[in-house]
């Protein structure tokens, strides 16, 4: 065959085979295309296979009924969303939307299951929001708008003993006088110091008291105490000025409802039980025993309470599922053993179910005397469901029972989901149930069992120790994220403390306490209370010993996303059964890793308490300078915990005499008869307010000394003149002044970039352009954090605790007692922010305005 290589044709006219040099590029391209096709096909196959496995896992979760566990999760999430929203939807909108979503879920359930699940989840979220809205409307607590000193008359509904002999009373307010409040709260909580005999429940108490609204957050995103007080029905807190007196005659209970009468009777019985326990045992062990049985925790000293917290044993004080399970379990076993002593009875009647019914009654009695705490209610519901399951021959302990208990609590009191008690209680219980289920489902290896005398006792003892260790480990790990988010610390030796203390509680304390409660009506409780006291004395010794091993691990305030994401991860780990639960493990690990390795949010440069009296400068990561040599402990302890502060830089005090006013002028440090009422409080009609009238020369002299302190003073430290004013200069060049006397605010505006006044002033802005924060603006904004940038550009960012005062637990901050009405959010100190009132042009005018009264 003749081949024409040049033409590439054969003699027959066909195409000639290509050369190897021509074939190689073609083959390489084919391999590349085949390789790409292979990778993409493998990727598509992997995705399809993963989707199939995911679908199979979902089907398994559905078949096991695990989707039911997420009903309380979505209900609780809806409640949390409603409580966190500044302007939530109306009740009508929530009802309509939940109906639409629920109807869509039912209509699409047969054909579009995935869409039906999404619609169902949305409907549950909306129902949770609606439940929260209804609870807020049902509470309708009137919270005092501002601090005031008045004469209160009220009926004692609750009383709690303190560690130093003081008593805390919850009064149903009847009237106020001198002055009479225009918007009085329904209930107040007042502390009575002294050694006077306590007033009985139901009696009328009269006395002059200092009332204040429940405090807001110490810093933005910290605990708002007004929230809890609103849903507890407490509208004001405070203390009696002197010993209150008991009004003669019996309290009028003619208008009392049956529920109120029953509630008063139960709390009277609870009070008698707590008093009896403290009288027999005495000291901190007696207060500890009263806390375990009745939930009254205020009688314990601060040292013992702190030792329990540092050692990780504080959960023993709360009436938790452990106490309820031990009490009902001991009663169940004891009653069943007693009935089994009668063979004829045991053969005719189901003594197990009879014992379960008796244990259910005992658990309900425990709930009645415990004060209906969230942990106690949750524990009772779990125990009741468990005992009812025994009556119907169903499994007793399961996540389904826990879910039912959570649904009931959220339906009745949705606000409970915002508290650490609810979160930690359910997290620990869910983790324990899931952990023990995984432990029981593990693969066991068969082996030769040893047989020698005492092996059974040794084995049971080992199981008890292992169970205690596992319970403490799982409980500690599951509640760690909530302890970090709410309390900003962890007990490093909680596991060791629980291993040493919990056997005493389980074997000695709770059985003795149960027997003491059963025998208390017959006066035979003293020996068993003594045994209970000895056991708790040992628990306290363990707590003090472990607390001395080292300081707790502190954590700064967590970002806003930490708790939601960590909670989702924990829920997926505990509520799912298939490999899908590892998604929660991955999420939780990612949250922890980002916190450990991610950039920390910038710390605020200036911190201001909500009353404007405490101001802090962030000097370094672990130190802060304040304008108070002794900061208010309640606020400053929260700052220290949330910000990880160890060192406090005190202000530099300058005496007035060393840089006094010009000769012939009054002393700036002289005390006046009265400094005026608390901002926003009604004046006392019987004792007219008298204010110091400052001359223009005194005000100018004070301004000059402020300027001198700013110029000559150091950086990052306050320089104060008595309790009149303080100034400080930051290393970034910014200056801040805090003023106690309203007459000096104008001079501070001329000296500093930021001015904080703890009193109301007659103007709303500084003519110098300085940022002015007064008692009235702080009352509406709450505590403030300020982040400073370049001073030349005026870069300043304010983060406030409240952005809108429309929620029922914060709306009292808008109330104006002068006009007896609520001021709109847009108004500040009665001035339109679009046309702010100018600063007075003369110092004399300023002094006259500041001394004219409120």
Mean pLDDT level: 80
Largest sheet: 6 strands, mixed
Unreliable stretches (pLDDT < 50, length at least 5) are: 1-28, 657-690, 828-854
Number of H/I helices: 24
> Cα-atom Rg, whole angstroms?
34 Å
> What class do helices, strands and sheet pairing give?
alpha+beta
Tertiary shape: globular
Which oligomeric state applies? single chain
Q: Percent of residues in helical segments?
A: 40-55%
Strand content: 5-15%
Number of strands: 24
The termini sit apart by: 121 Å
Strand order of the largest sheet: 14-13-12-11-21-22
Descriptive account of the structure:
The chain is an alpha+beta fold and 854 residues long. Helix content is 49%, strand content 13%. It has a six-stranded mixed beta sheet, with no helix packed on it. A six-stranded mixed beta sheet has the order 15-16-17-18-19-20. A five-stranded mixed β-barrel has the order 3-4-5-7-6. α3 (91-107) runs antiparallel to α4, α9 (321-340) runs antiparallel to α11 (351-369) and α14 (420-440) packs antiparallel against α15 (455-487). The longest helix is centred in the N-terminal third of the chain and has 44 residues, at 20-63. The chain is globular and about 100 Å long. Mean pLDDT is 80; it is low at 1-28, 657-690 and 828-854.
